[in-house]
Structures are given as structure tokens and as C-alpha cells.
Amino acid sequence: MKTKQAVNPYLPSWEYVPDAEPHIVDGRVYIYGSHDLFNGLNFCLGDYVCWSAPVDDLGNWRYEGVIFKREQDPAAPKIRLTNGLAAPDMIQGSDGRFYLYYFMGGTKMISVAVCDKPAGKYEFYGYVKYADGTPIGKKEEPLQFDPGIFMDDDGKLYLYTGFALQGNPLLLDGSKPTEHGAMCFELDPADMLTVKMGPKYIGIASEKEAPGSSYEGHPFLEASSMRKFNGTYYFIYSSLNSHELCYATSDNPTEGFEFGGVLVSNGDIGLPGITDVKNARNCTGNTHGSLIEINGSYYVFYHRHSNRKQSSRQACAERIRFENGKFYQAEMTSCGLNDGPLKGKGNYPSYIACNVYGKKGTRFLSMIKHFKSGHPYLTQEGKDREQGSDQYVANMCDGAVAGFKYFDLRETSKVRINIKGKATGVVYVTTEEGGKPVAKIQVKPCKEQHGFAADLSGLGEKEALYFSYKGTGAFDFMSFDLK
Q1: What is the DSSP string of 121-139?
Q2: Domain boundary residue among 321, 338, 355?
Q3: How far is CA 253 from CA 143, 233, 333, 445, in A?
Q4: Which residue, among 294, 293, 312, 296, has the nearest Cα to 304 in the 3D structure?
């Protein structure tokens, strides 16, 4: 029985876990990802943490604690700022233990930690290595990055890695990008470390090879992940567009992959009417994640961006349509894991907005905060923390929109927004972007948080809510109530 509704992001608003790889162990979904810090100067500056939820209660996430610290790796560079713990993945070995594969900046290697429990205290185990003992990444192969680990039904173990962006700071240590897409290594399951085959390019095209192929417009960049459904292998990756997760399929885990489509974009780019980062429904940035089947439904896990830069990323997930072996691009929503609209009664924090944009449009974020003028954005007060106040949508200025999907509004009669700021104007509530208002809320300046309300009625069982501001000044949008 569900204990509460699921929302996006599905972890607490003060938690920043991008690059999430979901895995089910004994009836719980465990999330293995990087760990950003709020307002961090770079990606992945925190130690690895883990969260889990029952497969039948995906709104009830439990903090499992820190599972691995950067300093436990003997090769950890002294400088953390440029050498964080990047996207990990986990697999249970034939010995029953759990193995965490990860990349740490500055090492060039793929490291492995091990634990007797899926979310216990992992201990450093070793580096993926060739038979002669040389770690992969220390020979002439391209940069090892974002490891995806996969054990097939026959017990064979495969590691997928790669990074294809020319001129990236990751390559300043002399590493080279892959020019032929993702790499695959077959590992010995006896020790989970030793290479039996590889590196082998599996047929995922990079930028130079994509034109004229099925990958044109969506060449490989990073974020390797492998899954298998109904006998078909699905390779999930982030394309050179960076804001989107894509997939490719094959009947062989080591070759013959053909482009399948886009799974999700963290700006909804690719959905009808949304063509590029300027008219995306959120400011965009990189993304990373994977697919999983839970109780007969399929979900795509990914991350979004906040705080006007790329390094405050948060975990999101959506139910995704899967028919006849094909996945269809998922829409970003506020209710991703809820498997249905949110209730039309109750208080909802504004940080669950799935669309946030201004009249100046959106942009692809960098590591430097973009300017505030004309742009609403997600943020929080104070520094990085492990508890405390929620995020909110800041700088709701003239033309700003915060959109939420979806709600069952059949019994809803009133909407109230809870705000603070120096705004004087009207908030128009619509169920479609640019649609006819179903409510108009007059707002005025308030130093402390204050509620402004309007009647709302005659709506359906699956409705979006868009709050659009017209007026002078700006306000911080803290939450809203449906009554």
C-alpha cells in the first residue's frame, strides 16, 4: 500500500543525486548515482550516497546513507574540485556480493568497490585491468568514463564506457575521446575485474560517424548503460545534444546496435512544438540515467538542473510507453513515479514544477550561473544541507511560467499560491500553455510569505496547471494549495 504520492524530483528537494542507475534487490529499488552539492563549483563533489524505495511504494524513499567515500580509493587525487566521483553503476556478482563500478576524475581508470549489502558500507576492491595487470585507461584506448556494468543471463559480465566530446576539460590529462562510440569489455565474473575481451566498439556512432547513419542527430557522447528486455539488448546513452537520453538495440550485447530513439529530454525537446534549447520547457544541461521495469511498467530515470547552472542536478523519473520493443519519448511531469495524476487537494511545493521558463525562453546551462533578468529558476536558501527548507521557483517576473503536470481536478474548487516578493500584477492559471485562463489571481507586494487565491472549477481528471505572471516586479513562488 502506498504511504504517499510520488512527485518529481522523487528525492527530497535538498538532495542532488544525478546520473541515477536504478536496480531492484529483494523488492526495493536502489538508486546509484553521482552526488552533486547545491551550488557546487563542479560536478560530483560529494561522496556516494544511496536511496531506496519499495517497488510497490515509489513515493516512499529512504536514505541509506553514505556508501562510499572518495578517500577510500587509493588513487584519489588530492584535489577534489576537479576530480569528483562520477556516475557509478552496480551489479550483484555470482558470489552474492554487490560491486560498485565508478570513475574518478584524474585517475583514467575504472574503479570497483564491494559490499555484502546493496546499500551498506562499500570497501575499495580494485581497478578493472587487463590480464597483464595494467588497468584499463592506462594504455592507448580512449577515456574510460561513466561505466555501465551488465551481467547477461548466461553469467557473462560486460562493462561499457566511453566519452566522445572533443576539447573537453576531462581530456586535459592527455586522454583522448572515443571517435567510434561506446566501448565494451567482457570481464571475468570470477574476480569481476579482469578483462577477457576488449575494448570493442559496439556500433554506437560518435559525431564523425553519425551522418548518414541511424544515429544522425543523436551521436554518442557519454552515460553508458545496458538493459535487456524480452531478449533484446537496450543500450542507453546521452547523445552529443547532452540534454537527452537515447537508446539503441541489438540481439547481441557486444555488436550490431542500431538507433532506437529518444527516451527523455530534460527540456522536453523533441516533443511536438519543442525544437531546441531556446524554446525548451526548462533550462537544459547534461543528463544521464537508465531504464527499469517495475511491476510490469517501464520507467526512465534521468536528472534535471537547478540554481541557474549545471552542477546542482536532481533525480527525476517518468513512466515511459513501451510497445512492440520500442520506447516512446517520455514527457517531463511533476508526478513521474506516481503512475497517475496527483490529487486535486492539498499543498504542493513549487519545486515539483516540470516546466519553468520566461518570456526570454531558456538556455543550455554552463558551470557559471546564468543571469537572473527575465528568467525564473529553481533554487534554495542557504548552503548544501541534508535537511531543511524546500526548494522553490525564484524570480517569477513578467512573462514567467511555472508548469505542473498532472492533477485530478474534478473536485477542486479553489487554488491559492503562496509567494513573497515585490510583484504587482496577475497570475493567470491555465490548463494549457498559453490557453484560456481558468483562474486569475491578483498579487501584490509582501515581505513575508502570503497566500493569494481564486476559485477553480469544472476541470477534469488529468489536467496540467500553468501559472503565468503578468505585471511589474517579481516574486518567489513557494507553494500552492488546491482545495
Answers
A1: --EEEEE-B-TTSPBTTSS
A2: 338
A3: 21, 6, 32, 60
A4: 312
Contact 5, 342 (CB under 8 A): yes
- State yes or no: is 179 an active-site residue: no
C-alpha cell of 6? 510520488
Total count of domains within the chain: 2
Tell me, yes or no, whether 212 and 315 share the same domain.
Answer: yes
* Whole-number pLDDT of residue 167: 84
- Is 411 one of the catalytic residues? no
* Residue 333 and residue 349 in one domain: no
Task: Answer yes or no: do 137 and 217 share one domain.
Answer: yes
Q: Distance between CA atoms of 118 and 129, rounded to whole angstroms?
A: 24
Residue 4 forms part of a structural domain: no
Q: Among the three residues 338, 368, 390, which one is the final residue of a domain in this structure?
A: 338
- Do 328 and 350 belong to one domain? no
Q: What is the pLDDT of residues 416-432, one digit of tens each?
A: 999 999 999 999 999 99
Domain co-membership, 217 together with 348? no
**Per the structure block, which three cell numbers stand in for 193?**
575485474
Share of the chain above pLDDT 90, in %: 95
Q: Are 168 and 261 in the same domain?
A: yes
Residues paired with residue 430 on neighbouring β-strands, in sequence order: 466
289 and 373 share a domain?
Answer: no
Which residues form the domain of 185? 21-338
Distance CA(53)–CA(9), nearest Å, equals 14
The H-or-E segment that residue 471 falls in is strand 463-472
pLDDT tens track for 106-130: 999 999 999 999 999 999 999 999 9
Partnered with residue 313 across adjacent β-strands are 305
Q: Are 258 and 251 in contact (CB under 8 A)?
A: no
* C-alpha–C-alpha distance, residues 407 and 412, integer Å: 10
Catalytic option among 15, 19, 36, 408? 19
| Closest CA relative to residue 402, chosen from 460, 446, 467 | 467
CATH number of the domain where residue 457 is located: 2.60.120.260
Q: What are the backbone dihedrals phi and psi of residue 279, each rounded to the nearest 5 degrees, phi first?
A: -110, 20
Q: Give residue 1's pLDDT.
A: 63
Residue 28 belongs to some domain of the structure: yes
Do 119 and 248 lie in one domain? The reply is: yes
Give me 431's grid cell. Answer: 490548463
Strands (E) across 116-231 are located at 123-127, 148-151, 157-161, 183-187, 195-201, 220-229
What one-letter code names the amino acid at 307? N
| pLDDT at 394 exceeding the cut of 80 | yes
CA distance to 22, 66, 364, 406, per residue, from 122 (Å):
17, 9, 36, 39
User: Which pLDDT tens digit goes with each residue over 200-223?
Assistant: 999 999 999 999 999 999 999 999
Q: Which of 89, 146, 207, 222 is catalytic?
A: 222
What secondary structure does DSSP assign to 239-273, as a single string? ETTSSEEEEEEESSTTS--EEEEEEEETT-BTBTT
Asked, for residue 66, whether it belongs to a domain, the answer is yes
